[in-house]
Every structure is written in structure tokens, then in C-alpha cells.
Amino acid sequence: MKNFKYIITLTLFATLLLSCEERLDIDPQQALTNEDAFDTADKISNILIGAYAQAGQAASYGGQITIITELLGNNGELQWNGTFTDQAEFDAKNVSTTNETVAAYWLNSYSIINQANIVLDNLDVFENESQRNSVEGQARFLRAVTYFDLVRLFAKPNNGGINNLEDGVPIVVNPVTTYADIEFPERDTIEDVYNFITIDLQEAALLLPISNRDLASANAAKALLARVSLQTGNYESARDLANEVISSGYFRLESSLFDVYNNQDNSSEDVFAWQVTESDGSNALNTFWATDRFGGRPGNPDISIENPFFGIFDTFFDARANFFYVDNETGSGIATYKYISGVANIPYIRLAELYLIRAESNFILGTSVGNTPLNDVNIIRTRAGIFSLTSLRYVDIILERLKELSFEGNKLHDYRRLQIPIGELEYDSPRLVLPIPQRERNVNPNLSQNDGY
């Protein structure tokens, strides 16, 4: 990723969408026009790179989405030791409508979406069809991934369509580049949002090359759509898409967990990772999860791992049960090795998850597409250095997900789709849904608030 300074002006207008009142008082001379900003393929490509950079900020995929999700999903496995009140609210499942981290996440998300929309609105500047297809596919992928995490966090769970007609998030497809473009949309239904995500990813999978370096690829689009399909209970789609990515031959499991995380280049099992360098992107995860030895805070890490977490392991010879450390000189809290570098890429979809998606979907459907569920689970267990199972229950697959994908932002969504309570809260508790930020509703009265707020 590279810095493109003129994207800054564009970002000012991206943040106009659903932003607070004072952001509307920007000098009109800063307004962008199609004539001076969107007239060449290079400029549109740079806006796309700006969208990647926006997504990689700490407010979104650079850390806070994962932190929000893990603390909301915590029921004793984690301990919040930090002093930030916003994150303390997530852990307590008592989030205020004025929570600044939630507001920043919402605003950053619609900035990503707006930049993707600008790209998609100006594809006619590309004369090279291959380049145009790649740019369009990447923009659709970025828009889809952003909407997917928005609807999972700001709306009710949608297991098999049970809440299809409930409020999701606003679907915005018109780019905002001038004041006249600003819209004040209502929230679309959960069903409409998921349909929109699915179409974007299906198109992206057709447009993108099968491999695309550290950018979105056809495999990344298929992998994300497999995750979307699993979330909504479309097991046949989840199974087939996961199988396509696994069978593509572009990815392999690393032999050691230390090769999976904290990499400056994608690992062999990263289907898609958010890119972080010393000059671009941010990795706020180690700030919250690491001790000061690895860039965190002195004493215990802001988020430490507690003893109940280790109860999911059937043997402590499991490498995943030993991927932790304690800095006895400054604290006694257990910290994960997953986030010990502030300039490391952040894995978003790994091959290991695709094996588990295929295993779960095959198990539910009673099929063995690509491999048997038992074999897929044992592939993951073998990498962890533990014994293979001789038979398989559904709970075994879910336990493998909890072990393998721990602290990567999956537990809350798994519990909600499987209708498992989190502590004393039912899976569909309003306290597990983020509030629509109050400052967004102050500007846009068409935004309805979630239950319980």
C-alpha cells in the first residue's frame, strides 16, 4: 500500500455521509468534481487504494472490529484490564449511544463504502478490460466485506432468515462527492443487506483474478461468501465455496502457528489479510492484546486470557493451548501470541477457517464434498500437534472453531448463529447489538434506533 495525499480531500467528502453536524461546515472550495478527480484510470485506481487504506485504519479492520466483537462475545474467557471506557462498555454489554469507538467505526465504514462507490461509478475511464474488471471486483469486495460486518454488529442475528424483515443498515450506492449528493437514507432490511452483499461477492468472484497478490482475489471473494453463507445458514453454498477455495491449490496450512501470525507478508494460509506497513495501515490489536514487551501497555495486557478459555481443549499438548505468554516482571495476565507486532498484517480469512466451514456444512448436510467432516477437522488438529478424532460430533466442530479462530472476531457471531447464550444473555439479546450512533441520528432522523436503546 502507498500513501496518496490527494485522497485526503476525497475522504473529507466521504465522511460527509451520515456524519455529525460540524462536518457539514467544510469550505465548498474543497469540493471534488468528476472533471478534476475522476477522469483517468490512475486516479480511480488510487481511490481504490485509498479505500483499502481506509479499511485498514484502527477504527475498522486495523483492530476495533475485532476488539468490539471479542469483548461483546466474552463470557469469562477474557478479562478487560484497560482504562478505555468505550471498550469497557463492550465487555459489560452496556454500550451507550454516544460511544465514540462505535461512532468512529460507523463513520469509517461508510467512508470505505463511499470510496468503493466512487470507483464503481467511474469504471468507464478504463480502456483495458482486464484492469477494469479487477478494479470493479476489488471495489465490490471492499463494499461487501464492510456491509457484512456492519449488519452483523448493528442488526439482529439472521439465522435462516428469522429476522429478514428487521432493520439492517442503510444500503448506499450513490457516491458522495459534493454537498448535493448527500442522502439521508433509512435502514434497509437485513434480508436486503445480505442479498446486496451476496450479489457484490458473486460479481467480484467472476471479475477478479484467482490470485491477486495482497489484494482481493476471486478466492477471497469466494471465501468471504462462504463465511456469509455459513452465517445465514446456507450450508450448501458455504460448503461448495469453501471447497472451491481449498481445492484451488493456492493456499496451504503453515506448519507452525508462529508462521501464521505477525507477518509482514501474507502467510501461505492467508486467503485475505489486511496489509500493514510502517507507513500505511494500522494494527491496533497488539496495543490491546500484547504486553509492553510487544508494544502493549505496562502491566497486564488490556485484554488478558482467563482460565475458563482453556477448558475447551481436550489436551494441553495442543499448540493452540500453549500460544500464550506471561510477563512476570510487570504483570500476571496471560497474553496471546497472535498479536505481538504493530506492523504485521492482520489475517481476515485463513485456509483453516475454510476447512472448518466445509466440515460443518458437510456435517449438517450429511455429505462429504471435498472430504469428510472428520478428515477436515483432523487436518486442523494435526497442525495443532494433537491426536486425531476417530468419530465426530457437531460440538467437536464448533469446539475446533473456538480453538482455531480464537480472538479473531468470530465467537460472538458463531454463538448468535447457533443460538447459544453468552453468559446470562440470550443469543438475541439487544445488548449484543451495537446502537446506531446518536450523532448519526441527530443528522439523519430517518435512522431508526435498535431495541434497548
Structural key phrases:
Serine Threonine Protein Phosphatase 5, Tetratricopeptide repeat; mainly alpha; TPR-like_helical_dom_sf; single chain; two-stranded antiparallel ribbon; globular; 6 strands; 42% helix; membrane; 453 residues; cell outer membrane
Précis, in short:
InterPro entries: SusD-like_N, SusD_RagB_dom, TPR-like_helical_dom_sf. Belongs to the SusD family. The protein is mostly helical and 453 residues long.
Describe this structure in words.
The protein is mainly α and 453 residues long. Strands 1-3 form a two-stranded antiparallel ribbon. Strands 2-6 form a two-stranded antiparallel ribbon. It has helices spanning 7-14, 34-37, 41-55, 64-72, 85-92, 100-121, 129-154, 190-207, 218-231, 235-247, 285-289, 351-365, 373-383, 394-404, 411-417, 438-443, and strands spanning 78-80, 270-274, 303-305, 324-325, 335-336, 346-350. It is globular. Helix 8 runs antiparallel to helix 9 (218-231). It has a single domain, classed as Serine Threonine Protein Phosphatase 5, Tetratricopeptide repeat, CATH 1.25.40. Residues 1-32 have low confidence and may be disordered.
- Assigned CATH architecture: Alpha Horseshoe
Helix and strand content put the structural class at mainly alpha
Q: Let me know the average pLDDT.
A: 92
What is the H-and-E element order? HHHHEHHHHHHEHEEEEHHHHH
Please write the CATH class name: Mainly Alpha
Shape: globular
Helix content: 40-55%
CATH fold topology: Serine Threonine Protein Phosphatase 5, Tetratricopeptide repeat
Keywords: Cell outer membrane, Membrane, Signal
Organism: Aquimarina brevivitae
InterPro entries: SusD-like_N (IPR033985), SusD_RagB_dom (IPR012944), TPR-like_helical_dom_sf (IPR011990)
Main location: membrane
